[in-house]
Design brief:
Length: 106
């Protein structure tokens, strides 16, 4: 019983060390580039549906500015927020495609 607990603890410790060492080698610029590309595609698709949200483009510009300053954490957060807006704008556009105007306008 003691041996299996020791083995399990050693296994957990080894796994933790491996996870931490790979996190140390992560490339924040590559992570930003991936997040930005995904966000840009979502915002462009929303724009093509004529439903781009007001702040999406601003967020993308701020993300690029933060990345140029080396603040990749902020840049990635902004890119992901812009992507969320782009995806949500697409959903909104599809949901309201045939909504029409309210009756009091006619």
């Amino acid at each position: 019983m003691k041996t299996s607990i020791k083995t399990m603890l050693l296994s957990i410790a080894a796994t933790s060390v491996l996870m931490l060492s790979t996190a140390a080698f992560a490339d924040p610029k590559a992570d930003f580039d991936k997040a930005y590309a995904s966000a840009e595609a979502a915002v462009k698709k929303a724009a093509s549906m004529k439903n781009e949200w007001r702040d999406s483009g601003k967020m993308l510009k701020k993300a690029q500015k933060a990345a140029k300053a080396g603040d990749f954490v902020t840049a990635i957060k902004l890119a992901k927020a812009a992507e969320f807006q782009g995806v949500t704008a697409q959903s909104q556009s599809q949901a309201q495609a045939n909504a029409g105007n309210p009756g009091y306008l006619y």
